[in-house]
Amino acid sequence: MENAATYPKYRWFIMVSYGMTSLVSAIVMIAPAPMVGLISKSYGVSVGQATGLMMGSLTLISFFSAMGGGALIDKYGYPRNAIIANFMMFIGTILMPLAGGSLGGAVVLRVIQGIGTGLLVGCSAAIAVMWFPKEQRGILTGIQGMAISLGVALAFAFVPVALSATGKWSSAIAVTSIAPAIALILAIITLFGPKAPEVAEEHLLPSDGKSDLAVAFRQPVTYVGMLVAVCFYWIYQAFNDLTPGYYSIDPPIGVGYGIATGSQLMGIMQVAFLIGAFASGFVLQKVFKGVAKHALLLSFILTAFFTFSVRLPFVYGSKPTALVMMILIGFFMSFLAPVFNAFVSLHYPAHIAGKIGGFWTAIGTVGGTVGIIVGASFLHFSGNYRMSIAAVSVVALVGLVLSFFVNPPEIFGGHSKNAKGLSIDK
To answer: What is the distance, to the nearest Å, from the Cα of residue 90 to the centroid of all Cα atoms in its chain?
Structure first.
């Protein structure tokens, strides 16, 4: 029977390091978003094209990186993956001014950044299984959600200041390399700490000659989870990448609040996302009694309703109303990733949690990439953001339907027990 004493206290430093890496991945991902108007002018392309190239290139390469990241962390552990991931994000960020005059060069650096962001973004379930007892795993997945939202909020708050100070969008991005430098130092420190403990598997597959991974990929919920991840990343990437331009660019393309106000609204949304991610573990266990599908249903339906509302004149016509709506979007959207990552850590064998989590995240990033491309295409051809934002709401409704089928794979223990011995995910 596992208990917290089985795991070294060093796990809390691992949590800090992983949280910082997650924060950095969010900063790296979103930094160009508030400045897409300037980027499009500097390269002589449309806002939609600039969004697709600068944001889509990172999310596309993250698919391949995340696909391998889960397997690599299962094999080599957290420290080595974290060092490589943060080094790639640091290099891709600090060198941006050197490629500022070349769109191709900027895209190459975004690809380098994407390799770094993908390596660990889908590994929270694996890290939770390796380093934390079962009753504490929701804390790590929640911390990752908090860190990502905090990173996006910091980017929206800091990038306009850096732009004002440097006068160039590429230099403003380079200034944010401070964050991956700090995360890289923390990752290097973890290399010299104790190794993750070896603990007994919590889900035992009957001995029938089949590997756990092969069996996992025969379970319908593995593919349902993949599709839920696609919906989440589509919603998260598309809304965060498109909405800054929607609020900041002048009509008829956007609302016309300006970069500063648009960034403030997005930053406040991320604070709400942070609070929601922190609360998600408590809500999952205390409110929904560990039933992941119920938390997902609530999150998807409210996300669909609130994201659609930002298109309405009575919302964007009033800054206070727009502010309230962004808070609601951030809070309820934040439940999605921590809940499905917690589902993996609770219901799949420990030695394949990284592979399953990495697979879900990798396929999910395809949804993020497609979401950006679809949104950018709607923006390019329609000349405004209305259809792009409506697409996000439609995908949230698809996620709502899929959530009804998120049930634990019975072959790995069916209805697992939580820390208090209560059946979860009925």
So the answer is: 19
* Orientation of helix 137-166 relative to helix 11-30, angle to 10°: 40
Tokens of 280: 């998600």
Question: What Cα–Cα distance (Å) separates residue 114 from each residue in 27, 130, 169, 213, 390?
Answer: 12, 25, 19, 27, 27
What's 1's DSSP letter? -
- Domain membership of residue 204 (yes or no) is no
Give the three-class secondary structure for 417. Answer: strand
C-alpha dihedral, 91 to 94 to 97 to 100, nearest 10°: 50
Cα(144)–Cα(153) distance, integer angstroms: 14
The answer to whether 196 and 350 are in contact (CB under 8 A) is: no
Query: How far is it, in rounded angstroms, from Cα 290 to Cα 295?
Result: 9
DSSP per-residue codes, 281-336 = HHIIIIISTT-HHHHHHHHHHHHHHHHHHTTSHHHHT-HHHHHHHHHHHHHHHTTH
Cα-flanking dihedrals φ and ψ of residue 160, to 5°? -60, -35
| 27 domain-assigned | yes
Contacts of 167 (CB under 8 A, 6+ apart): none
Q: Taking Cα atoms as reference points, which of 31, 112, 23 lies closest to residue 65?
A: 112
Residue type, 324: V
Question: Tens place of pLDDT for every residue, the chain, 426 residues?
Answer: 455 557 778 888 988 999 899 999 989 988 888 888 888 888 888 887 888 888 878 877 887 787 777 778 777 888 888 999 999 999 999 999 987 678 889 999 999 999 998 888 767 777 877 888 777 776 777 777 778 778 887 888 888 899 999 989 999 999 999 999 999 999 999 988 888 776 545 544 444 445 777 888 888 898 999 999 899 989 988 888 778 788 888 888 888 888 778 878 888 887 888 888 778 777 877 788 778 888 899 999 999 999 999 888 888 888 899 999 999 999 999 888 778 777 887 788 777 776 787 778 778 777 877 887 888 888 888 888 888 889 999 999 999 999 999 988 877 765 444 433 333 444
* Contact by Cβ (8 Å): 226, 405: no
Specify if 59 maps to a domain: yes
Listed in sequence order, the residues at least 6 apart from 256 whose beta carbon sits closer than 8 Å to its beta carbon are 248, 249, 250
Under DSSP, the state recorded for 250 is P
Say what the pTM is. Answer: 0.68
> Domain with 311 in it: what CATH number?
1.20.1250.20
Specify the number of domains making up the chain. Answer: 1
Q: How far is CA 80 from the centre of its chain?
A: 21
**Range(s) of the domain holding residue 254:** 4-192+210-412
